[in-house]
Design goal:
With 208 residues, this protein is of the alpha/beta class. It is built from 6 helices and 7 strands. It has a 7-stranded mixed sheet with strand order 3-2-1-4-6-5-7, sandwiched between helices. Strand 1, helix 1 (44-52) and strand 2 (59-62) form a beta-alpha-beta unit. It is globular and about 40 Å long.
């Protein structure tokens, strides 16, 4: 089944930046995931931009190799703390954002959903983090929203080499959106899928 054929139309969400993290090594995919071409002709990162650019007045790409992505005409921010993985990417995105809150997604998530983003964005008041909480209690830390108020706690985690994104959640105001609510808009939770391997790519983009 292919999930990338839908037409995406959505209005801008006020005071929300959007950041795409493109700093991973793509070792399991065997090539740069962001630049893989989808069946609809777009690169994976172009699909994400197509879906999310209409939502924001501030779209950021967090990536160290600026020349690789220059043709996308995005504001590119290099990692502010190198070698710190996804947490460092989230920190860079929040620090660089022009708005108070930032939606953060990975470059291998081509099914990100404007409807899910809008639902998360509605929960922003009095929150530092808004994220889907699965029925097993775990958080989806990508396609999640982070506020500027997270910066001190993220900096502390980075200094102490606690590099899981959730490492700072106990220091900030986290507003979970439960899985049952997200499934009303995304019944299979496909908008949170990361395509890490060729097998995963084929599973979601088969001939049918």
């Amino acid at each position: 089944m292919s999930h990338a054929r839908e037409t995406v139309r959505s209005e801008q969400i006020e005071n929300l930046s959007v950041a795409i993290l493109a700093g991973g090594r793509s070792s399991r995919m065997g090539q740069n995931k962001a630049l893989i071409q989808l069946p609809n002709g777009r690169l994976m990162i172009e699909e994400i931009i197509f879906r999310l650019a209409p939502l924001t007045d501030d779209l950021i790409l967090v990536a160290d190799d600026q020349t690789l992505y220059a043709s996308l005409n995005l504001r590119i921010e290099p990692d502010r703390v190198s070698g710190t993985g996804a947490l460092g990417g989230v920190y860079t995105a929040v620090a660089a954002a022009r708005n108070e809150h930032t939606l953060v997604v990975a470059c291998d998530m081509p099914f990100v959903s404007p409807d899910v983003v809008r639902a998360l964005a509605e929960r922003r008041p009095n929150c530092d983090v808004v994220a889907c909480r699965l029925d097993n209690g775990e958080f989806e830390t990508m396609q999640a929203i982070y506020g500027k108020g997270c910066q001190p706690a993220m900096e502390e985690s980075l200094r102490n080499k606690r590099l899981r994104i959730i490492s700072f959640f106990d220091k900030v105001r986290v507003c979970p959106v439960n899985e049952i609510e997200i499934r009303k808009m995304d019944s299979d939770l496909v908008s949170f899928v990361n395509l890490n391997t060729p097998e995963e790519f084929q599973r979601y983009f088969d001939a049918g």
